[in-house]
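User: Second chain of the day. Same drill as before.
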Amino acid sequence: MDSSQIRKLTLVINSVILLLVFGLAGFFFMCKADFLVWFSIPTALVYVLGFVLIANQRYKFYVRLIYSWLTFYMSVTTICLGYKFGFHLYCLSMIPINYYTEYLAFKMDRKNINTHFMTGLIIVGYVVSTVYSSVRGPIYETDNLVAGVFWIFNSLVVIIFIVTYSSFLIRGIIDSETQLFEIAHKDRLTGLYNRHYMMEVLSGAESDDKEYCIAMLDIDNFKKVNDAYGHNAGDEVLTRVADSMREICGDCVISRWGGEEFLILVEGTVGGNGQELLERLREKVQKSNIVFEEKEIKVTLTAGLSDKDRNVSLDKWIMSADEKLYSGKHSGKNKVVV
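Assistant: Same format as last time:
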């Protein structure tokens, strides 16, 4: 979630709470709870100030102000009307929201709001108001039916707040985990898996009962491309070749093994579908038009394929494909060696 999304979300929440304050003020007037009617005026002003703070991206001060006042407001309301209305439940709903705010502060590279201290204030407000209204009774007596309706309404609002913020938090965690996976396991230039992740995949394939083969590939004469057209052109070639690999070998696990070298894990044998697949890839790369700064660059691939052998270690399996690649490189290039 970026700063613009956070701003929109905060504006929506501030608007909803302000509307609730106006609605509750009307209810307090009907109940002849004069103090709560007057108390609604500074409460509304607090949320009006909230819009100013949001507009100026003063989120830290906004959170401190709103959480403190909301806790105070709900505590006073509970003391005046009693715990049967369920206003004190809003204090509980603010606890997960409080910790979600800490997560957002981290994402935005801002200082947190001392979450534990704020949570402590919320708990104190909840306990004091609930205990006081339980022992002393409400200041303003109201009909039990009305109290029951408000209990249901307030409970539903609190549940919606908790579910919504929990959902945002989980989505944020999933997005962060996805980004970390991309950073840790993918090559930044080509978007293919990196060597580290491919070794993990190969280790799993080695112990799997399925048949696999691997292809070790190399872009022919890649150094000449860099020397003739520059390293940016070389990066363009790597990216375009990676795109061709994804197109032809979409069901395979593809990695950039290092430099201009790639390794592909194919489910099946060399004779089954591995060789045919790599031949199609080789032909596609050979026919591709790679244009960089109005210059056409032609490249080819050489590949070595090797079937999985349960009696051979992972290192030797990879070495077998590498040796076949080496053989292809020294016998004309632009070929698939099996």
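Residues 195-337 form a domain with the Alpha-Beta Plaits fold (CATH 3.30.70.270).

User: Great, on to the next one.
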